[in-house]
Amino acid sequence: MSRAAFDDRINAIEEKNQRLALGVEYRIGADGLIEARPRRRMTRRPPFRGIAMVLTAALGLKAALFIGMGEATYEARRADLVVGNRAEQVAAWLMQPDPAVRGVALAVTLFSR
Predict the structure, then answer these.
(1) Residue 37: strand pairing partners
(2) CA 90, 96, 98: angle at the middle one, nearest 5?
(3) At what angle do helices 71-82 and 86-94 cross, to 10 degrees?
(4) What integer pLDDT is reported at residue 21 of this predicted model?
(5) Which domain of life is it from (predicted)?
(6) Where on the phi/psi map is residue 91: left (φ > 0), alpha (ψ -120 to 50), or beta?
(7) Within 13 Å, how many C-alpha atoms sit on residue 44's CB side?
(8) How far apart are CA 66 and CA 52, in angstroms?
(9) 3-state SS string over the chain?
(10) pLDDT, tens only, 8-59
(11) What is the CB neighbour count within 10 angstroms for residue 30?
């Protein structure tokens, strides 16, 4: 074994030991040997899947209300919210029938026939 290869191996062992100091997972291999592996570090990232699910559910709720009530009734109820307190005004703004809701409503009515 050359000196460079030996040094690389020593450096790899030292790095693994430093990572093992932060946390260890033990696994049993197919040959029955117990191996210590460094615990994977969890990275912080925004929950994109959860946010997408909430937005999809909100769109579905708006579309279901829009289809169930009909456009005229939906707009009349939304108009009642516009003249209410600040929370009702925010709800009225959120419940505006946007193009996505109208598209879902049109698709549901076309495919339900």
Answers:
(1) 25
(2) 135
(3) 150
(4) 84
(5) Bacteria
(6) alpha
(7) 0
(8) 21
(9) CCHHHHHHHHHHHHHHHHHHCCCEEEEECCCCCEEEEECCCCCCCCCHHHHHHHHHHHHHHHHHHHHHHCHHHHHHHHHHHHCCCHHHHHHHHHCCCCHHHHHHHHHHHHHCC
(10) 999 998 988 888 888 888 999 889 999 888 887 777 888 899 999 999 999 9
(11) 5
Burial of 79 (0-12, 13-18, 19+ CB in 10 A): exposed
Dihedral in degrees, nearest 10, Cα atoms 13, 14, 17, 22: -140
pLDDT score of 41:
74
Q: How many residues in total does the chain contain? A: 113
Residue 47: what residue type? P
